[in-house]
């Protein structure tokens, strides 16, 4: 019998991709194993072979730091998926944006690598980048704020 092993990060990535695509249900079936993910939040993950269903949140709730007194207001740009943040198109290139740069709707702001795919994230608004909240190469969660545009 074939065995399918998924770790927590792979399940989170699968849930994030399903959410990004707007899917309400995902079902994987293999001989002796099935995985079902339904709804947006919470998600029920159930495996066959008499295993009890496990409840997993579709939207991770990373710890949020207490707001600083000089916190910048504006539009947060959130990570659309679980992955690794990259500010540059390649290690030897300049960052897509820096603090103080003016951006327009549709401009590429950064890349999130997930499951060996490079996903360009574009601006939804016109404005100025006032804060970058993560470091280049840092792992990020689904809906984690990455930068602020005012």
**CATH topology type of the largest domain:** OB fold (Dihydrolipoamide Acetyltransferase, E2P)
Total discrete domains? 2
CATH class term of the largest domain: Mainly Beta
Rg on CA atoms, Å = 18 Å
Find the count of extended strands (DSSP E, 2+ residues): 12
Low-confidence stretches: 40-62
Mind describing the biggest β-sheet? 4 strands, antiparallel
Q: State the helicity in percent bands.
A: under 10%
CATH superfamily of the largest domain: RNA polymerase II/Efflux pump adaptor protein, barrel-sandwich hybrid domain
Instruction: Let me know the average pLDDT.
Output: 75
Q: Find the structural class using helix and strand composition.
A: mainly beta
Q: What gap, in angstroms, lies between the N and C termini?
A: 55 Å
User: Largest beta sheet: what is the strand line-up?
Assistant: 1-2-3-4
Number of helices: 1
Percent strand equals: 35-45%
**Helix/strand order:** HEEEEEEEEEEEE
Apparent shape: elongated
Please write out the topology:
Elements: H1 8-20, E1 25-30, E2 33-38, E3 43-47, E4 54-56, E5 75-78, E6 83-86, E7 102-103, E8 108-114, E9 117-122, E10 127-132, E11 139-140, E12 145-149
Antiparallel strand pairs: 1-2, 2-3, 3-4, 5-12, 6-8, 6-11, 7-10, 8-9, 10-12
Write a concise keyword list for the protein shown above.
single chain, 150 residues, mainly beta, OB fold (Dihydrolipoamide Acetyltransferase, E2P), 2 domains, four-stranded antiparallel β-sheet, 12 strands
């Amino acid at each position: 019998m074939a065995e399918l092993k998924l770790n927590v990060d792979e399940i989170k990535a699968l849930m994030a991709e399903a959410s990004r695509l707007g899917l309400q249900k995902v079902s994987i079936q293999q001989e002796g194993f099935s995985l079902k993910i339904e709804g947006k939040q919470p998600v029920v993950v159930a495996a066959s072979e008499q295993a009890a269903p496990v409840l997993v949140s579709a939207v991770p709730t990373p710890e949020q730091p207490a707001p600083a007194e000089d916190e910048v207001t504006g539009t947060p740009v959130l990570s659309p998926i679980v992955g690794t943040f990259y500010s540059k198109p390649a290690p030897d290139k300049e960052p897509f944006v820096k603090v103080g740069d003016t951006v327009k709707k549709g401009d590429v702001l950064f890349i999130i690598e997930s499951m060996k795919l490079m996903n360009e994230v574009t601006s939804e608004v016109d404005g100025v980048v006032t804060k970058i909240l993560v470091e280049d190469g840092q792992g990020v969660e689904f809906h984690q704020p990455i930068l602020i545009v005012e």
